[in-house]
Structures are given as C-alpha cells and as structure tokens.
Amino acid sequence: MQNYPRENRKQRALELIKKVGLDKRVHHKAGKLSGGEKQRTVIARALAKDARVIVCDEPTGNLDSKSSKAIISLIEELSKDKLVILVTHNYDEVKHVATRRIRLRDGEIVEDREIKVVDQNNDFEKAVEINKVSPLTLLNSSIRTLFATPKRLLFVLSLQIV
Asked: 97, exposed or middle or buried, with CB in 10 Å at 0-12, 13-18, 19+?
C-alpha cells in the first residue's frame, strides 16, 4: 500500500510475483503453496516494501537448485541499488555474488574479509523517507483482513462475548 496509487497496486504486486517466478500460482491461497513457493512469496513482499536494506536469512533454504539460482540472481540484481545482507550456511551457492564474507562461530566473528571491492555509489546513510499510510487506508485494510477469514472472526467474537 505504501502510498502507491490504488489503481497501480495490483499491477505492482503482479509485477513482483512475476519477478520471483510465481506468476502461475497467482490465484492460489498461501496454504496451498509449497515451502519454496512460500519463501519466494516472502521475497516478493520484501521487494514490495522497497526498503534500502534487505536482510535475507537462508533465502534458498527450501528451494530446489533451479529456483535457488533464480533467487540468487534476483538478489544479485537487487544488490546493485540496495544493501543486501545475506545469511547462509551454504557459502558456495552465493560466493559469486558476495562482496564481503563474515563468518561467525559461537557468536564470535572468526573471519571478516572483503571479497570484491564495490563502487560505493549507493548512499545508504541518506535520511530515510517515511511514507505514511492514511488512516482510512489502514481501516479499510483492517476490515478486509477481518472478513477474509470469517470463521476466525466468528470464533474470536464468540470468545470475546463469553
């Protein structure tokens, strides 16, 4: 919602879904998606947030090798204009993308080395622009969420009444 015009929101969502390779599963409920598809959905949501810093904790953990390569190339593309912090147990999978490697063992840093020197054309220390969402939009979203799961709504209401 982040101040996107109402008529462009669906188009933006579909664009991001296509970017992570889930365009064939657009009309499926989240519960019907596989673990890897759910993980790609989370990546699309992170992209929709349009944050300057993206933290990826095991982004390819539940994916097959083909999907993993697609997600790693997407992360590589994102790293051109965003700071991407990637946490993984499988360094070999991401070593061609990494610019710095920090290894931890028992909460201690055991290795910290720069792998590639990167042109620092990104200014990540700029003042963060806060996009405020209007109260009407928040109320609308809350009401739609409540009625999206009518069984849960009725259950919670009955608990409140009791």
From this structure: middle
Give the mean pLDDT of 101-120.
85
Cα distance between residue 113 and residue 78, in whole Å: 22
Looking at this protein, which amino acid is placed at residue 71?
I
Q: At what angle do helices 6-19 and 35-49 cross, to 10 degrees?
A: 130
Q: How far is CA 61 from the centre of its chain?
A: 14
* Cβ contacts of 56 within 8 Å, gap of 6 or more: 43, 46, 75, 84, 85, 86, 87
Asked whether the beta carbons of 118 and 126 are under 8 A apart, the reply is no
Position of tokens 């889930």? Answer: 22
Kind and range of the H or E element at 40? helix 35-49
Give dist(CA 162, CA 160) in Å, integer: 5
Nearest to 93 by CA among 54, 66, 55, 111: 66
pLDDT in tens, 119-147: 655 555 554 556 677 888 888 888 888 88
Under 8 Å between Cβ of 60 and 68: yes
pLDDT at 1: 59
CA 130 to mean position of chain CA atoms: 19
Euclidean distance between CA atoms 47 and 141, whole angstroms: 20
Q: Which two tokens stand for residue 47?
A: 């992209």
